[in-house]
Design brief:
The structure holds three protein chains of three kinds. Chain A is an all-alpha fold. Chain A contains eleven helices and no strands. Chain A has one domain: MetI-like fold (Orthogonal Bundle), CATH 1.10.3720. The longest helix of chain A has 36 residues. Chain B is globular. Chain C is α/β, with parallel strands linked by helices. In chain C, 30% of the residues lie in helices and 24% in strands. The chains are: A mainly alpha, B mainly alpha, C alpha/beta. The complex binds adenosine-5'-triphosphate (ATP) and magnesium ion (MG). Magnesium ion binds next to helix 1 of chain C.
Chain lengths: 293, 321, 324
């Protein structure tokens, strides 16, 4: 192992993250946004652990009950407690967001790194072709087609999102890897005879982690937003409850003048998406080498 | 002549893309799609009846033959008839695409025009209060789901609880007034959702162009701001702006309004696609997917030609990608 | 002695950054006589470009601002002008050539159009006349077949050609003062020499004054009559070139000169290396900013900043407690 090259690489990495953390800490909007996201995450964790919102599916009151101490946000068209359902949906949002973000970022990182490392060979061409193809299939049709061929599997939505969201990440990682692979530490890794896969995944890819982190936050937000639309169209969450399902339920209610369901789901979702967007922006700012002081 | 040759070459270069898209959709929709035999045969079918239906559906032929069949349909633009209504797919497209365009264009144009405008204002005052205000609003707009915006505007403008100015749903273009009444709410929702993204993107482009060296050169020679703005900043921003606009066109022509149309019950291509998804109407789905891919290739060609018009560094002869 | 063309007094330029206020140019004073070429040298980041930009009112605002000081050009006070008054100064009275010729021209317009724009901005002439003047200028800076070249886009020209176009553009308005910010750094060695030679010849022909910003002490020796050495935002030494080379007073100048390569053909991308680093602009020491790298440092050097004071018989100034 070339110790000098390793040390150099690590030093570069360390200082980037230290500087980014220092910069992020001073970004008040970013810190508040992160706290909000953490609050949502705790709510979601509580649902998973069965601390709250356990009765989201029970019919516990009359239809369209107004706000009360028993039903904080009233009840829906068949008398289910809107507050529990909205809280329960937080868990669904995190589930969808995390699975899609991790999956898309992983595939994007791997394919992007391989394409970048083998740039201007047929491997690169093939990945570029695949990205172009998946980009040109209308998203909703792709979801439908995947749902179709998986015989209505509840994972069709996740798979379809991952199948499209990795592309943006892969493009960025590819560019980043093309830049990195000419650098000294990569050349010294070649010189001491490390395998190509080792070089790609142990030495180059870790240096694109800042790109991956930002892309993961973007995929998370995109997944939550897509879930709402897909669930409304009947292509999204199959069992359980989600903000998208609540909103699609509410489309009948709002015409009758009952807004609780709609407002509860909309406001909660807006809060999470907004906070995540702000957090993502702050992260990007902090990690941008041009603005790091 | 040069442009013509170039276009031809470019279209040929787009063939792998179309092949890829059609192959994936063929695999997903037709090959691994649900077996339709039992929907079509009657009760208690005999083995012969089953075999006959299967051969009608083409299930007994090899994969390659069936895929080639699909490609032949694309080349001849003849996708057969819808399985649910028996209407020719070509006539469905001819009937619904204009509706989708009428529905989507106002929002698309306004969303981009206002986006560029707001981006210019924000970039001009960058770092200042106006900039922060515009970009803050953009961040809020970006966090609102399309569906929520649609329902929100519907409640505000179309329901008895709101202003009750426009019809709740449906589509009517018989008179200009009817058109305006039906298109307003969908347009507002579209603009509301697109504006944040557009403004952010265009501001980034314009700010980048504002900080270029040649802008400083022009200032160092006393060129007035209006001229710098037009000749150094706007002209150089055109390439990314045009790219973004052109690449959104395939989506609005084909499936961009899917949500809008199914929500408001508007008989456009989006609604037709959605119904085809729900009922598994393969001929329609195959046509929609193939058309989108072809439009993407054409869009790519158009952006390349725009590049050439705006940026002298790009020559049509050289690059093929 | 006649009044100098340019007189800069106590110029201060500040940038506000996330981490605090940076003084990129700190209390700089100098003058340039008519027809004179003044060299401005110093390490990367010492404030040379910002000084040049300040003379044209081009300090990017925000984050930068001209905090105080005065800039008198030909009797006119420039500090505090509004943007439209600045515009009548830029190009006409003072022009600037930048370091990076590859990006300094607008890629989407023909160079002819860009030159004609500049010419017509400052003179009441027709397009046709401006075009003829542009061609004539291009020929003067040594561009072959200028009537063809004028039709081309920047990307069709080599780096040296582009820098010549920039020079032609700058000279075409016959400014009184030309600020040339490392005009040849980005070019290869042979082109460097040619472009520089041409520039000096034209400067003499036009009777312009010039501030030549450079990394290369050799260039200063060749082309300048006076030189200023900057360190960490301040001028540490200022002297006629012969005097400076014969007897550098500031230890920093001494260090710079000591390490000039003997072979002149060799290209010097950076100033010669002197041990140590520049102080953090956010965290400047009380005393002399060079103290940590100085081999003659005394205790009192660290107490207060040395002022720029006249020394010797020639028109020299140095900011050092223990000058040579
Ligand atoms: N836009 C800016 N924002 C913040 N600080 C700046 C900006 N421009 C310059 N500075 C500060 O001014 C200092 C001097 O910069 P300047 O470009 O004048 O250096 P220079 O001497 O021209 O260096 P070089 O030889 O590398 O061109 C820099 O160290 C930097 O701290
Ligand atoms: Mg400089």
């Amino acid at each position: 192992m070339n110790a000098a090259a390793e040390a150099m690489q690590r030093r570069h990495g360390d200082s980037l993250w230290n500087k980014a953390w220092r910069k992020f800490r001073h970004d008040r909007v970013g810190v508040v946004a992160l706290l909000v996201v953490c609050a949502y995450a705790i709510v979601a964790l509580g649902v998973v652990l069965g601390w709250w919102a356990t009765g989201w599916a029970d019919i516990s009151g009359p239809k369209w009950a107004p706000l009360s101490s028993e039903h904080w946000l009233g009840t829906n068209i068949i008398g289910q407690d809107i507050f529990s359902r909205a809280v329960y949906s937080t868990r669904t949002a995190f589930e969808v967001g995390l699975i899609v973000a991790l999956g898309a970022t992983f595939i994007g990182a791997v394919l992007g790194a391989i394409a970048g490392f083998f740039s201007a060979t047929w491997i690169d061409e093939a990945v570029i072709w695949l990205m172009g193809v998946l980009d040109s299939v209308p998203f909703i049709l792709l979801v439908a087609a995947i749902a179709y061929s998986l015989q209505d599997s509840p994972w069709a939505m996740h798979i379809a999102m991952i199948a499209t969201f990795w592309i943006g990440t892969a493009r960025l990682v590819r560019g980043e890897v093309i830049k990195l692979k000419g650098q000294e530490f990569v050349e010294s890794a070649h010189a001491i005879g490390l395998g190509r896969m080792t070089i790609i995944f142990r030495h180059i890819l870790p240096n694109t982690f800042h790109v991956l982190l930002v892309q993961a936050t973007l995929s998370f937000v995109a997944a939550i937003k897509s879930e709402v639309i897909l669930s409304f169209l009947g292509l999204g969450v199959k069992d359980g409850m989600s903000w998208g399902l609540m909103i699609s339920e509410s489309t009948f209610e709002v015409l009758a003048g009952y807004f609780n369901n709609f407002i509860a789901a909309s406001v909660l979702m807006f809060g999470l998406v907004m906070a995540f967007n702000m957090f993502s922006d702050a992260l990007q700012d902090a990690l941008d080498p041009r603005t790091v002081k | 002549m040069e442009v013509l040759l170039y276009s031809l070459r470019k279209l040929l270069a787009g063939i792998p893309l179309v092949l890829g898209v059609t192959l994936i959709s063929f695999l997903l929709i037709v090959y691994f799609g649900p077996d339709k035999t039992y929907e079509l045969v009657g009760k208690n079918p005999t083995a012969e009846q089953i075999a006959e239906v299967r051969s009608q559906l083409g299930y007994d032929r090899p994969f390659v033959t069936r895929y080639m069949e699909y490609l032949r349909e694309i080349v001849t633009l003849d996708f057969g008839s819808s399985e649910s209504t028996d209407e020719k797919v070509s006539s469905i497209l001819a009937r619904t695409i204009p509706v989708s365009l009428l529905l989507a264009l106002p929002g698309f144009i306004l969303g981009n025009a206002l986006g560029v405008l707001l981006a210019l204002v924000a970039a001009y005052f960058r770092g200042g209060l106006v900039d922060k205000l515009i970009m803050g609003s953009a961040a809020v707009g970006m966090s609102v789901s399309y569906l929520i915006a649609i329902i929100g505007f519907q409640i505000l403008l179309s329901s008895a609880d709101g202003l009750d100015l426009f019809p709740v749903r449906g589509w009517d273009t018989s008179t200009p007034l009817a058109y305006i009444q039906h298109v307003t709410v969908p347009t507002l929702a579209t603009v509301f959702v697109a504006l944040g993204y557009n403004t952010r993107f265009y501001r980034a482009v314009i700010v980048e162009e504002m900080t270029r060296d040649h802008v400083r050169t022009a200032r160092a020679f006393g060129i007035p701001p209006a001229k710098i703005f037009y000749r150094n900043i706007l002209k150089n921003s055109m390439v990314p702006i045009v790219t973004r606009v052109v690449f959104s066109i395939p989506l609005i022509v084909i499936s961009g309004s899917l949500l809008l149309e199914s929500y408001f019950g508007i008989p456009g291509i989006g609604k037709v696609s959605y119904d085809a998804i729900i009922t598994g109407d393969q001929p329609v789905l195959k046509a929609v997917v193939a058309l989108t891919a072809i439009l993407f290739v054409v869009a790519q060609l158009l952006t390349d030609i725009c590049y050439r018009l705006v940026d002298p560094r790009v020559s049509l002869g050289a690059s093929t990608r | 002695m006649p009044a100098p063309l340019l007189e800069v007094n106590n110029l201060v330029v500040e940038f506000s950054t996330d981490a605090g206020v940076v003084r990129a140019v700190d209390d700089v004073s100098f003058s340039v006589a008519a027809g004179e070429t003044v060299g401005l040298v110093g390490e990367s980041g010492c404030g040379k470009t910002v000084t040049g930009l300040a003379l044209l009112g081009l300090v990017p605002t925000p984050p930068g601002r001209l905090a105080s000081g005065s800039i008198r050009l030909d009797g006119q006070e420039l500090a505090g002008l509004d943007d439209s008054s600045w515009r009548s100064v830029r190009g006409r009275k003072v022009a600037m050539i930048f370091q990076e010729p590859m990006t300094a021209l607008n890629p989407v317009f023909r160079i002819g159009n860009q030159m004609i724009d500049v010419l017509r901005q400052h003179q009441r002439i027709t397009r046709r006349q401006a075009r003829a003047a542009a061609i004539e200028m291009l020929a003067k800076v040594g561009i072959p077949a200028p009537d063809k070249r004028i039709q081309e886009y920047p990307h069709q020209l080599s780096g040296g050609m582009r820098q010549r176009v920039m020079i032609a553009m700058a000279l075409s308005c016959s400014p009184r003062l030309l600020v040339a910010d490392e005009p040849t750094t980005a070019l290869d060695v042979t082109t460097q020499a040619q472009v520089l030679e041409q520039m000096v010849r034209l400067q003499q022909e036009f009777g312009m004054s010039m501030i030549l910003i450079t990394h290369d002490m050799g260039v200063v020796a060749q082309s300048c009559s006076k030189a200023m050495v900057m360190y960490s935002g301040r001028v540490v030494e200022q002297a006629p070139v012969t005097e400076l080379f014969a007897r550098p007073r500031h230890p920093y100048t001494g260090g710079l000169l000591a390490s000039i390569p003997r072979i002149r053909e060799q290209r010097i991308p950076e100033l010669p290396v002197i041990e140590g680093t520049v102080p953090d602009p956010l965290n400047l020491p009380e005393g002399c900013r060079f103290a940590d790298r100085c081999n003659k440092v005394r205790d009192y050097c660290r107490l207060a900043q040395p002022e720029l004071k006249p020394i010797g018989r020639a028109d020299s100034k140095v900011a050092c407690y223990v000058p040579d």
